[in-house]
Design a protein that fits this description.
Two copies of one chain form a homodimer.
Chain A (H helix, E strand, L loop, with lengths): L16 E5 L3 H10 L5 E6 L13 E3 L5 H8 L4 E4 L6 H9 L8 H8 L1 H10 L7 E4 L2 H10 L5 E5 L9 E4 L15 E5 L3 E11 L5 E3 L3 E6 L2 E7 L6 H18 L3 E10 L4 E7 L9 H4 L4 H9 L13 E8 L9 H8 L4 E4 L9 E9 L2 H16 L5
Parallel strand pairs in A: 1-2, 1-4, 2-3
Antiparallel strand pairs in A: 5-8, 6-7, 6-8, 9-10, 9-11, 9-13, 11-12, 12-15, 13-14, 15-17, 16-17
Helix pairs in contact in A: 1-9, 3-4, 4-5, 10-11
Chain lengths: ~400, ~400
Amino acid sequence: MRPPWRGRYPRSVTFPVVGMVGGGQLARMTHEAGIPLGIRFKLLSDTPQDSAAQVVSDVVIGDYRDLDTLRAFARGCDVITFDHEHVPTEHLRALEADGIPVRPGPDALVHAQDKGVMRARLDAIGVPCPRHRIVSDPADVVAFAEEGDGFPVVLKTVRGGYDGKGVWVVDSAEEAEDPFRAGVPVLAEEKVDYVRELAANVVRSPHGQAVAYPVVESQQVNGVCDTVIAPAPDLDPALALEAEEMALTIAKELGVVGHLAVELFQTRDGRILVNELAMRPHNSGHWSMDGAITSQFANHVRAVLDLPLGDPRPRAPWTVMVNVLGGDYPDMYSAYLHCMARDPQLKIHMYGKDVKPGRKVGHVNTYGDDLDDVLERARHAAGYLRGTITE
Amino acid sequence: MRPPWRGRYPRSVTFPVVGMVGGGQLARMTHEAGIPLGIRFKLLSDTPQDSAAQVVSDVVIGDYRDLDTLRAFARGCDVITFDHEHVPTEHLRALEADGIPVRPGPDALVHAQDKGVMRARLDAIGVPCPRHRIVSDPADVVAFAEEGDGFPVVLKTVRGGYDGKGVWVVDSAEEAEDPFRAGVPVLAEEKVDYVRELAANVVRSPHGQAVAYPVVESQQVNGVCDTVIAPAPDLDPALALEAEEMALTIAKELGVVGHLAVELFQTRDGRILVNELAMRPHNSGHWSMDGAITSQFANHVRAVLDLPLGDPRPRAPWTVMVNVLGGDYPDMYSAYLHCMARDPQLKIHMYGKDVKPGRKVGHVNTYGDDLDDVLERARHAAGYLRGTITE
């Protein structure tokens, strides 16, 4: 088996070039994971100040929505992958037509870009989802509600939402008017009676190898991921297996290459339903940087290069990730003294982003044998960095 | 406690800039360790092709032997540290006089630059070394031999040697002529009857905090480090403690800031003697990247910034590092398929360097419960990458 770039550089002894579209923290951490593999990174970033642009040597500043920019960027890349899912599907098809491997490819990625397409496809392959339907106006939302258990109903624009944006929970026809104002198709979903959120992270390579990380519990605050516990505590092993198999099935059936995060609801009556899909390294997998034998970022790089995947198993009984959100105090560096002195095992991951209230600017990982202790350490550090804990 | 750069950027919310002199693999891996901390790296590199220059965004190409170049580079850095020990001592003093923190400082670093100064200082603080003396000519080497057990005698130029270069083992006055030709002072040492080589790695910060990594066994082949086993197998705990304390004493007495590697002989009669010192992350500490809670590179960054140090303890019972040397086959990337498929837990660290026979171009780490298995996996992978194992 010969990797795809070999034919392009027959006399070269250099390692492949991975083109990463998007300069956010996922690109930054993917670059970090690529360094030890000798992989060369080329970054397409909106600005030189973007998180990844600060640490990558080969950066192109440009707009990923412009096909000419993408095409010029892709020249000299052996494969293109993504920090986010916002590149227009037709541009990805154009790059593929130019002969550039795009991973994940447009046919897979559309399921992470368009919630309507995603729901239809998951229905078709028999993956359990919340009851759902594309709705056309507030009256249709009322009809959707009456077909089930009534209000509240969850409305989502099919494209463009993230971290709670583009999502509404409505109790009436009047409240259902906002989502239609953007002119984007709106998906209605039942408000699931869930006990917690889980995430199943898998990585799949072009030749079909796939690995599953342990299913994690993901705790949201105001619609934003706050805490991830790996593995999910007190999860029935049969349900964990079902979630892993579900994620592997989705990856295979949708032709995903790279990392796939499947966000799940664990319902009060013991089922799991798919909430969202993300086809890139994901916040629910950040624990793996310090908690797994192979991190999600390293495995994403290996997958997009069609290299054999690394072992996804945990290195410690418990790993906890807590996001560091921006607070009122912009200087997080001075908090290092306290955090590092208090917990010499703490793992800090900062993204080099300007601190703005509520913005994800980093995360911390802790691991160990005692979940209470591991949780306390991560929460304390994240709170101290944010400024909500001052002692 | 306020970090030293705070006064320089009173209104800045940015993180400190670490200036790294030298673009080799140690700089590359230090940069990798600095990314999650949000530390900004500025690199002074000989060429844009150097190992670290490939992956650092802020690179100055220049000659570290030129004081003006160093001074211009140091502007905008909060602290200067090093990939190697070759910067002239007087240049470091000039930078310090300019107000730039240099870590380790010239008074410490000279002990890693000049073996004569090092031996004199270790004698003065009572650290056991091989019998040694500065010798002036071949006749003086004969005299040195006769003062002890006779030939062979080890001769070393006091400056400029590494990886076996600048070292001679001589059996007669005639053989002792070569080392004097360079015009550099020559140190004579007894040929120690050792059973193995060990290394004690410690990290010390400006305010005096220090941590000790477990003492490792370092196996050399043709004067070049080949395999490191952490911790050193079958090492008497009292001897391990003595080695750690010795390294901590040296770090303190010499005023080392950052990583200090103390290469040791374990003698047949059960003593440990200091062979060499290195004041930077060191090959004998590469295992810590995957095998310790905090890697030597992360702790070096923390030390030079006077941040609290991270836990140096191992994460697995055994970790093995084997260097990947260049072989006859220049394309190491295609070997990834076999190596990764054979061992999904393997950790590869490549430096982006051109493959030349015998050159250190990377290393692999393995860890686990069974030393024989861990050793076999690392040796197989390194051999396969080099091309000496083909199945």
